[in-house]
Each structure stands twice: as structure tokens, then as C-alpha cells.
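By convention, the C-alpha cell line describes the chain's fold. To illustrate:
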Amino acid sequence: MSIKVGVVFGGETVEHEVSIISAVQAMNKLNLEKYDIIPIYITKDREWYTGDMLKDIEIYKDMSLIKKYGKNVVLYYKDGNYVLQNKNFPKTVVSDVDIIFPIVHGTNGEDGTLQGYLQMIGIPYVGSNVYSSVVGQDKVYMKDIWAEAGLSMTKYVWFYDVDYKKDSDKIVKDVSKLKYPVIVKPATTGSSVGISVVEKEEKLIEAIDDAIQYDRKILVEEVVENLQEVNIAVMGNYEHQKVSEIEEVISTNKFLTYADKYISGGKGKLKGKQQRINSKGMASANRKLPADLPEKLHKEVEEMAIKAFKVLGSSGNSRIDFLIDSKKNKVYINEINSIPGSLAFYLWEEKGINYTSLLEDMINIGIKDYKKRLSKTSSFESNILKNFTANGGLKGAKGKLR
């Protein structure tokens, strides 16, 4: 009997289109002998749709077709099953679902929001839980936790948009404690959206104003000199982890931009709609695989990646990005992507794990995590309110919890 896998993607995020690319790639690689694929597409206005045509990348060229031919649904628990039900009349069940596979990048999907809903209704799901998703999406939380764990990072400062608007001079003064050039980032977005490299203080305000369009929390970090940017994927959970091959990403810019990752040819700018999104996503970015690293640095990246993954309590398949000063041979951990673009499948192929096997491994980890959650006590059978009186509060309830 096939397992019904609901692949959730899209969403209200600046990485909406990137999520579509990653999800369509994955749906076309899932083993049809083991899994029934149920696409669940979330529009930018947060409506959920399902339908077989959502497996085809071409349908997204005209979004009106999705609303016309797709079924607008809600996901919830009904009569012992997790079901997708028509949102509008007649409210019939379209399909039941055994496990959810989130392939949503960024806000309201990768940041613990979706995971919280799935965990609340009790359905098994693939990937990191609520807590690790939250800290994995928020670069400030992430760095503070990694700093406590002793992982090597570049110097950084952060602030809220409200503090900047109240006293921008103070923020500029705080940033001046760092060494220029610096990189300015929205703290909770991905795919290099809203990121700028600032060579001199005069350009800082412009970069912050850009980042604030995307987030209320802003991160500013020192730029690594003699930069060599490498990525590695870690798969597993808090009990077991294994690592992929390491890639070196190649960019003509000071960091891997959105255009490098997703715009055909790696050129052009994010603004405007004339550029063509590359349907291969991160799999098409320029890279050297495996990365050209001395054995010592190769091992250091692997060990640091596993520690970072475990410290955050991550699960599934995450990509962790590193910055290396190639002259000093100094490694800095940069960030984690709990649902990476293209699910970083190309990093695992170098280890002999094809995309189909990778997806199966991720689903199996999700099932194990679900069983582990069920094994822990999360509520009590007793109802202390049965002894509650409006005037006297709880009577005789002490010691009843077990």
C-alpha cells in the first residue's frame, strides 16, 4: 500500500517561486511505486490548492489556471484521518494524507509556522520541528546559539527596524565597531533577497533601507577577506547525522546572489519581471564539486556542520554554508538552510545517493521523528477541572497529576 505524501510548497514569502521549483523537482523524483504524490500549493494570498496539474512547472506561468482547475482545500484531522477537504461547497474530502513533506522556503513555511500547524493537528511531517525551524530561519537566533556552542563566526551586530528609525545615528555607530566592508542582511529571509555588501559607511544607510523592506530585524556582519564560500548538507536528526560532499560556490559577486541561484544565466537583477526563472533552481548555480579544500579544512567543515546541525536540533536534510579565508585557512560558519533550494540533492549525488533515495531517506526520518514525539508524554489523562468551583478554585486536586 502506497504512502500518501502531501508535498506543500509556495506560500506567502519572497521565495515563493523558488519553492515551486524545488517542489516540482522533488515531486518528479519521488518513487511512484512507494508513494502517492499529493501536491498542496499555497498561493501568495495563503489559499491552499491541490490537483495533479500542480506537478507540472508549466502551469505556474498562468496562475489563473490553478484557481480555475485546482481544488481549493483545507487540511485537518477528521474521523481518524488527515484529509484535504474542499473549502467551498460541497465540502467533500478530496484526499487523505499520511505525511506532509514541506518544501516551502522562507517566511511562513521554513520558519516554524507551517511546522507548528502540522504538529498541532498531529500529522507526521518531514524535516526540522518547530523550534529548530524557528532558529534556523532567524539568523540572529541562529548565531547567538552557535556562539554559545563555540562555533567560529564573523563579528556581527543586529537591530530592529524600529530602533533604526528612532535613532539611525546610533545604529551607524554600532556598525562602525565592525571592520568594513560589511554585509547587510534581513535576518529571516533566504535566497539572498535584500542582501547588500557595503564597502564604506556612506553606503550603509542605503543598504539598511533596502533590507528593512523585507524584515523587521537586520543583521550586519564583517565580510570575510580572500573569500572561499563552501556548502555542505547534513542529513539525520539529533541522534544520527551524516554529511554530503562539500561544494564551492562560484559567483562574480561578493556573495551568491538571487540571480546567481535562480535567474537564467546568473545575470540580471531581482527587480522587474523580464528575467526568466531557471527551473533547475540551485542545481544550476555555478559550483566546484567537490570543493578544492585541504584535508584539514575539509574535515573541519564536516565536523563543524554536524555540531551546528545537532546544536539546533535540526532534522531531515539541511544545507549549511561556510565562509573561508583562503589565505589564513580560517573557517567561519555562516548559516543553515533547513529546507534548502533543490533540497541540495546535487551534494548527495557525489556520495552515491541519488535524488529519489534522498527523498526516501528524508521521509523515513520524518516518520521516525513522529514516532519519537508520540513516545513522549505531552498531556495528562486526568482533568483537574472536574474539581473546579467558581468560588473555591481547585479542591482536592493536589497530587492528582500523574
